[in-house]
Amino acid sequence: MLFGTIVGSLADKQGRKRACITYCITYILSCITKHSPLYKVLMLGRVLGGIATSLLFSAFESWLVAEHNKRGFDQQWLSLTFSKAIFLGNGLIAILAGLFGNLVVDTFSFGPVAPFDAAACFLAIGMAIILSSWTENYGDASENKDLLTQFRGAAVAIASVLGATVWHERWKHLILWEYPACWLLCI
After folding, report:
1. Transmembrane stretches, by residue range (predicted)?
2. Residue 126: which of 51, 28, 15 has the closest Cα?
3. Given CA atoms 164, 167, 171, 176 in this order, what sign does their dihedral have?
4. Rounded Cα gap, residues 131 and 18, in angstroms
5. Residue 150, SS3 per DSSP
6. Using CA atoms, how far apart are residues 32 and 20, in angstroms rounded to an integer?
7. What is the Cα–Cα distance from 6 to 23, expressed in whole angstroms?
8. What phi and psi values does residue 124 have, to the nearest 5 degrees?
């Protein structure tokens, strides 16, 4: 939650191709941690996975939009690309990946972490493709905020959401439990 608020602007400053490569490396490291029996290593893997997920849902799309505009392609193509990505990438490929993961665990008996090992292999292939064929692009340099300012903004947003959640639960408890109890006592 904290990293998701700053990852996009870091990708804009440091380069979106570099952010996509960082995604691949970070998620490969997250997959490797699944082999450890140590709780701290597993938690490190979850943190790495969270950072990688933030990169996944910001850097790749930003790179695509910037490249699309830089090359002067028709804007309608971008819409078609994203609609196909939702169906194929978030739908069909996710189902096929789940079936493949089940295949490597059950049929080939490679063990319970085999899907993570397979994912690391596919990530390495994807990283090689990114390194060899993508060009680097950057975001707008006019919106130049330092990292500390971005973390402060993220902390304020998180504290606001947590505070609202606590008060919501308090009022829900009050309305559902305390007010009816008072009315029962008055009868």
Report:
1. 43-65, 85-104, 116-135
2. 28
3. positive
4. 9
5. helix
6. 19
7. 14
8. -65, -40
- What's the one-letter identity of residue 55? L
Q: How far apart are CA 84 and CA 105, in angstroms?
A: 29
Determine the Cα angle at 47 with ends 67 and 40, to 5°. Answer: 155
Q: What is the DSSP letter of 108?
A: S
Residue 161: half-sphere exposure toward Cβ, Cα within 13 Å? 7
Alpha helices in 86-187 (DSSP H): 93-102, 114-133, 147-173, 179-186
DSSP, collapsed to helix, strand or coil, labels residue 49 as: helix
Q: How far apart are CA 33 and CA 120, in angstroms?
A: 11
* Spatial contact of 49 and 4, defined as CB atoms under 8 Å apart: no
Q: Domain coordinates of the chain in residue numbers?
A: 3-73+111-139, 147-187
Q: Whole-structure pTM over 0.90, yes or no?
A: no
Could you report the per-residue pLDDT of 9-47, keeping only the tens digit for each? 778 888 899 999 999 999 999 999 999 999 999 999 999
